[in-house]
Amino acid sequence: FTGIPDGFNFIYAVPTKVQLNGAKFLDGYFKNGTTYVHWSSLKTLNIPFTYNGGVSYTIEGRNIQAVSINGALYFNWSLLSPGNVTFTGISDGFNFIYRAPN
C-alpha cells in the first residue's frame, strides 16, 4: 500500500499462471503493469544468485530487491537475467524462457 491524503491506496496483485521453459510453475502476480515470479524461479532456471537476507539478492552480480506479495518474495520477471529471459503468452499467463549466456 501507499499513503494518500486521509488514507491508504492498496495495490492489488492479481494472480497469474507462470510457466518456466514450458513447465508449470508456481503462480505469479501481475502488479504495477508487470508480472512477478516467485524467488525460487532462480533455482528452477539455474540462474546464479546469492540470498543476502531480507529482500536483498545478488543475481548474476547485480543487487536486486525482491517484493513481498502475500508473504512470499517475488521478482519482476525482467530482473531475473536481463537479455536472457524472454516470454510468450499462455492462457491466463506467461511462459518465461531462459537461455543461459554463452
The share of residues in extended strands comes to over 45%
Number of helices: 1
Largest sheet: 8 strands, mixed
What is the arithmetic mean of pLDDT?
A: 90
Helix content: under 10%
Tally the beta strands. Answer: 13
The residue ranges in which pLDDT falls below 50 over 5 or more consecutive positions are none
State the order of secondary-structure elements, H for helix, E for strand.
EEEEEEHEEEEEEE
- Helix-and-strand structural type: mainly beta
Principal-axes geometry comes out as globular
| C-alpha end-to-end distance | 41 Å
Q: Tell me the radius of gyration.
A: 14 Å
Q: What would your notes on this structure say?
A:
The structure is a single chain. Strands 3, 4, 5, 6, 10, 11, 12 and 13 form an 8-stranded mixed beta sheet that branches. Strands 7-8-9 form a 3-stranded antiparallel beta sheet, with no helix packed on it. The chain has 1 helix and 13 strands. Helix content is 4%, strand content 56%. A hairpin with a 2-residue loop joins strand 12 and strand 13. The protein has 102 residues and is mainly beta. The longest helix is centred in the middle third of the chain and has 4 residues.
Short description:
This protein has about 100 residues and is mainly beta. The protein has one helix and 13 strands, in the order ββββββαβββββββ. Helices cover about 5% and strands about 55% of the residues.
